[in-house]
Amino acid sequence: MTTPAEPAELAAAAALQVPGVAELHGGAFGEVATYLPGRRVTGIRLGADTCAVHIVVEYPADLYAVAAAVRGRLGPLVGVPVDVTIEDLRIPSPNGEHPTSEVTP
Length: 105
Hints:
Blueprint: H1 7-16, E1 21-24, E2 33-36, E3 39-42, E4 44-46, E5 51-58, H2 63-78, E6 82-90
Parallel strand pairs: 5-6
Antiparallel strand pairs: 1-5, 2-3, 4-5
């Protein structure tokens, strides 16, 4: 039996479907999350009167338009005001790959 999706999980999935959103971001110390039984939804903090969404945006993109699209998509879904924070930009390398901060030997 699968667990029904929680509103925070639905919000995360909806945010990731917005063109220009590369991924959700947990904030500087991973503090942006919604805690559910046995799991957490990183990048979404859903409360009774607000929803905080922290994202990484794919470059190049119109940052204001991406944030507005996230607000527009999530607002009706969560039923509270949505605050969007763009934490980072993902800039592809010249060969089209997405570099990471991990160093491999």
